[in-house]
Specification:
The protein is built from one helix and ten strands; from the N terminus they run H-E-E-E-E-E-E-E-E-E-E. The chain has 120 residues and is mainly beta. It has a single domain, classed as Immunoglobulin-like (Sandwich), CATH 2.60.40.10. Strand 7 and strand 8 form a beta hairpin. The longest helix is centred in the N-terminal third of the chain and has 13 residues.
Length: 120
């Protein structure tokens, strides 16, 4: 527990500043069971302060992954995060229809996030 708190504080202090975030592709379509990869590139090294969110219509964004690859409680295991320095990837292995929505890559400590849609 103490390690998590210290790590978070270090992350916040390390991740301040202006960072631009871009995602690709901007939109993707997939059939149930396929693997979907969403890429995120930052303008400078933000390791380990990258989070992924999913927003469904009429709902607030839901945290899926933080610290690049740590699954938030309740996030299905088909979601995974990877990457380092400036290039990061969200992978959905065996995508399901309920995974449709807008995905956000965010570098903690900034207000920058870019949305990407994915639908089946």
């Amino acid at each position: 527990m103490m390690w998590s708190l210290i790590f978070f504080l270090l992350c916040v202090s390390e991740c301040r500043g202006q960072i631009s975030v871009t995602q690709s592709p901007s939109t993707t379509a997939a059939q149930p069971g396929e693997t979907v990869k969403i890429n995120c590139r930052t303008s400078r090294d933000v390791t380990p302060c990258v989070s992924w969110y999913l927003q469904k219509p009429g709902e607030t964004p839901k945290l899926l992954i933080y610290y690049i690859s740590t699954l938030q409680s309740g996030t299905p295991s088909r979601f995974s995060g990877s990457g380092s320095v400036t290039d990061f990837t969200l992978t959905i292995s065996g995508v399901q229809t309920e995974d449709a929505g807008h995905y956000y890559c965010q570098s903690s400590g900034t207000k920058t996030s870019v949305s990407q849609s994915h639908s089946d």
